[in-house]
């Protein structure tokens, strides 16, 4: 077998001979990405970025709602100092 046959994208021969050995724990992702076309790769990366951003947004909204509920009930920290300003 010549050198070019072992390094051909999508070939399983490279995985058997240790071509992906230096990728460590990322080897499965590298194998998958080598077989995907560019638009699919962009979609996967976009989803990987949107997931944590969405999670953080949900947590921020929950925190804001909780803070608003606490201050409206007069249980928020420091609210007692401003109670005389609010009828």
Structural class: mainly alpha
Largest sheet entry: none
**Average pLDDT score:** 76
- Listing every helix as H and every strand as E from the N terminus to the C terminus, the arrangement reads HHHHH
N-end to C-end Cα span: 85 Å
Number of helices: 5
User: In one word, what is the shape?
Assistant: rod-shaped
Integer-rounded radius of gyration: 26 Å
Strand content: under 5%
Helix content: 55-70%
> Segments where pLDDT lies below 50 for 5+ residues?
1-5
Query: How many strand elements?
Result: 0
Descriptive report:
By secondary structure, this protein is mainly α. It contains 5 helices and no strands. The longest helix has 35 residues, at 38-72. The chain starts with a helix and ends in a 5-residue tail after the last helix. Residues 1-5 have low confidence and may be disordered.
In brief, what are we looking at here?
The chain has 87 residues and is mainly α. 64% of the residues lie in helices and 0% in strands.
